[in-house]
Amino acid sequence: MEDKFIQGKSLIEWKRDYPLLNEIISTNEVFWFNPKNQRYNKAVRNISISEDNVKDAEERLIRFAPYIAKAFPETSKSKGIIESPIVEIPKMKGKVKKIFNRNIKGKLLIKCDNDLPIAGSIKARGGIYEVLKHAEDLAIKNGMLSLEDDYSIIDSEKFRNFFSKYSIAVGSTGNLGLSIGIISAKLGFNVTVHMSADAKEWKKNLLKSKGVNVVEHNSDYTKAVEEGRKEAASDPNSYFVDDENSLNLFLGYAVAAYRLKEQLDKMDIIVDDEHPLFVYLPCGVGGGPGGVTFGLKLVYGDNVHCFFAEPTHSPCMLIGMMTGLHDKVSVGDFGIDNITEADGLAVGRPSGFVGKTLENLLSGIYTVEDNELYRLLSLLIDTEDISLEPSALAGAYGPIKLFDEGYRYIENNNLKDKMENATHIIWSTGGSLVPKDIMKEYYKKGLSLL
Ligand SMILES: *Cc1c(COP(=O)(O)O)cnc(C)c1O
């Protein structure tokens, strides 16, 4: 192992250049501060994606709102806008102080993407957006739709017949498959979801019940994506949702930031020079947390500090960003097994597109052990009655970590005197579709670890 070569350098050399790799390879928890993090105005100069792109995505979702409201009545209250609540969680904050012995200074909030309608996870943002965009492109190109139409006409036999001539494919560990599968089937597309071995049985069954073709692979996420890509490439009427490289997914996620700002404004929560905002986002391949981070930076610039969270056994974005190798490297190259209960985060190779886009905007990445996810899962149910899937708890570990090893970040960025004014947002990424009996098992496991 020690004399193994990775991208032209021996493991010994990699460890010498990046000593944190010793801990990462031993699957110990770490907190990495991104040394390439820059002032916002400087960092955006190197990024080709602009505010106009995100605004365009926001407008597209508004055009589709009448369709969504009609096709998914559960969204009628929000008039077809797919959005989640944000709430303060003071009881959880108190409990964290007791159990983890960490005093979180500032307000503690949770952004409940677990409650997003239709797909029950953060994938209801990017995944649904990308399929809607594809549907719009096809319909406009074929003279069936114009931008000025009331898009509720899409919920009809005429459109379903039209879309049934086209197919959509995706590779997933579970939740992206759910979101792409549900929206594509509803529109009338033929949809195939390639599921990795990590995918939970109930997620596959739910999709099959909605008429989605589910192909089960014995391999990990990267391989499932590759299979999906291959299959789609052989059919000109097939569209592949590329979780590793998709700009559209990224833009769908980024829209969340505008919506969040509206919510914080309504709650009279200030974010400015004296009131820093900290956001903690679970990271798999990177699109979800990356898109949200990009949007938040557009909105709040240097006043928002975004951290990604990864399982100790799947630290792909951490290794990719730290070494600068991005998608040229997988955790397996460093002998890490990519085995985690956090199925949404079980990704061994990060998105190079996301890693490079956020290279100068991300504050840092920490890793978390699976057992901590379960402990937090039970605590959050006990204190606030919020039920999340294990992956979604990775963000909840962030504030605990920040006021521990992460404190150096606060000191180095002269934030110490501002922490009483800070707001911390745990980005919860999934959970509302988890069957009750499975959630009970998760809860019991967490309790046994407390
Ligand atoms: C997909 C997912 C993430 C991470 O999103 P990526 O785009 O893969 O980084 C986090 N949590 C849950 C529950 C997810 O399903």
UniProtKB/TrEMBL annotation:
Transmembrane segments: none annotated. Its EC number is 4.3.1.18. The modification N6-(pyridoxal phosphate)lysine is found at K123. Pfam families: PALP (PF00291). Its cofactor is pyridoxal 5'-phosphate. SUPFAM superfamilies: Tryptophan synthase beta subunit-like PLP-dependent enzymes. The keyword Lyase applies. GO terms for molecular function: D-serine ammonia-lyase activity; hydro-lyase activity; pyridoxal phosphate binding. Belongs to the serine/threonine dehydratase family. DsdA subfamily. NCBIfam families: D_Ser_am_lyase, PRK02991.1. This is Probable D-serine dehydratase. The gene is dsdA.
